[in-house]
Amino acid sequence: MTKPGEPYKPSRQDRLRPAEYVGGAAIAAIFVGAVALMATRDWTIALIGLGGVFIVVLVVLALLQMAIKPDASEQAEISERGPDEHTEDRPGLH
Fold first, then answer.
1. Are the CB atoms for 82 and 76 separated by under 8 Å?
2. Fewest C-beta atoms under 10 Å: which of 25, 59, 61, 83?
3. Would I find Transmembrane among this entry's keywords (predicted)?
4. pLDDT at 93 exceeding the cut of 70
5. Taking Cα atoms as reference points, which of 54, 24, 15 lies closest to residue 36?
6. CA distance to 19, 50, 71, 74, per residue, from 78 (Å)
7. How many CA atoms, within 13 angstroms, populate the side-chain half-sphere of residue 9?
8. CA–CA dist 58, 64 (Å, integer)
């Protein structure tokens, strides 16, 4: 937790999280592209499948991440207030 006046420095895990999503989407896209290339022997269809799957998987992962509700400690980091202060004004967040 940062003190007032100090800039927020994300952890290494927080900095690498976007790379994990892009990497996962890339792996799924390469798999689909390879299967399409082996099945059709047409580079155009393989590249269209690769690009389409990359975009769809990346969007789905981003939407799933946005659906996860942050817990009290993450919410406190977002608002830069302590977790006790944050949960007192909203009784639904125990």
1. yes
2. 59
3. yes
4. no
5. 54
6. 21, 36, 11, 6
7. 5
8. 10
> Does this model's pTM top 0.90?
no
Q: Is the dihedral of CA 55, 61, 65, 67 positive or negative?
A: positive
CA angle 17-20-21, nearest 5°?
A: 95
- Which residue bears the tokens 């940062």? 2
What type of residue is 20?
Answer: E
Q: Which tokens go with 62?
A: 């981003």
Q: Count CB neighbours of 55 within 10 A.
A: 12
Q: Which of 14, 94, 13, 28 is nearest to 61 (CA)?
A: 28
Taking the C-alpha atoms of residue 42 and residue 89, their distance in angstroms, rounded to an integer, is 60
- Nearest Cα to Cα of residue 18 among 61, 53, 60, 51: 61
Q: Give Dmax (Cα) for the chain.
A: 62
Joined together, the tokens standing for residue 67 give: 């659906």
